[in-house]
Specification:
There is one protein chain. This protein is α+β, with helices and mostly antiparallel strands. The chain has five helices and eleven strands; from the N terminus they run ααβββββββββββααα. The strands form four sheets. A five-stranded antiparallel beta sheet has the order 6-5-4-1-9, with no helix packed on it. A hairpin with a 3-residue loop joins β10 and β11. The termini are far apart.
């Protein structure tokens, strides 16, 4: 009985090692990839039916209505680097440059509308192109926060025709050119209510403290320690 049990045990041990060896071989050689059922589960679109078409149409209609309910944004129409002798930018009846309607908005004027996301601004039932011949002509007007964490509560002092134009700088890559900022600086310099706390105004008025020497005895006073 003992030799028979030993033979059976040896056979089972050989079978176990054979299974482990085959599994290791399949794993290292990645032979499992050739199996028919191997691979990620893919879900393919079906032909659908009329109910599916109606539901998709309702979703698209709801998305379009949500876009229309968005608040209007303020834009500045300025030719910037675009060279032209026209008095302004012509309105289009559709998203086609050739579909002009004759009326235009003057350069430097501001309009309120919606950015459609495809290079056009919808103003009422008319359209304005954002770019002509590669040059931006309609720029979004963003209110500055003057270094704060939100919209300021004391008003603004800037030229109404100031706007930003995105440009490509050979060294700094994508930059924004602030057109009309020199006029804004002039307004702030001659304003009777605006707090002229910018560094060049403080230096011009002599309000900057002298630089602290390394051995200054009163350098630990609170007014020198506050940023």
């Amino acid at each position: 009985m003992v030799p028979a049990d030993a033979g059976a045990f040896a056979a089972l041990l050989f079978l176990a090692f054979l299974i482990i060896g085959c599994s290791a071989l399949f794993y290292h050689l990645e032979l499992y990839r050739v199996l028919p059922g191997w691979g990620p589960i893919r879900h393919f679109d079906c032909d659908g039916n009329e109910d599916l078409r109606i539901n998709q149409a309702a979703i698209h209609r709801h998305a379009d209505q949500a876009k229309d309910n968005l608040p209007e944004q303020e834009f500045v129409v300025a030719k910037g680097s675009y060279r032209t002798d026209t008095q302004g930018l012509e309105y289009r009846m559709s998203k086609n440059l050739e579909d002009g309607i004759g009326s235009h908005v003057k350069w430097g004027a501001r309009v309120f509308g919606h950015d459609t996301g495809d290079g056009w601004i919808r103003v009422g039932d008319k359209y304005l192109p954002k770019i002509i011949k590669g040059y931006p002509v309609v720029h979004i007007q963003e209110a500055g926060f003057y270094g704060g964490i939100g919209k300021c509560t004391w008003g603004y002092c800037e030229a109404p025709w100031q706007y930003r134009e995105k440009m490509h700088h050979p060294v700094h890559n994508e930059v924004f050119m602030r057109h009309g900022f020199a006029d804004t600086q002039y307004l702030r310099a001659h304003s009777s209510f605006w707090a002229r706390d910018e560094p060049h105004f403080l230096e011009e008025c002599g309000l900057n403290d002298a630089k602290l020497p390394i051995n200054m005895s009163d350098g630990s006073l609170p007014r020198y320690c506050m940023a």
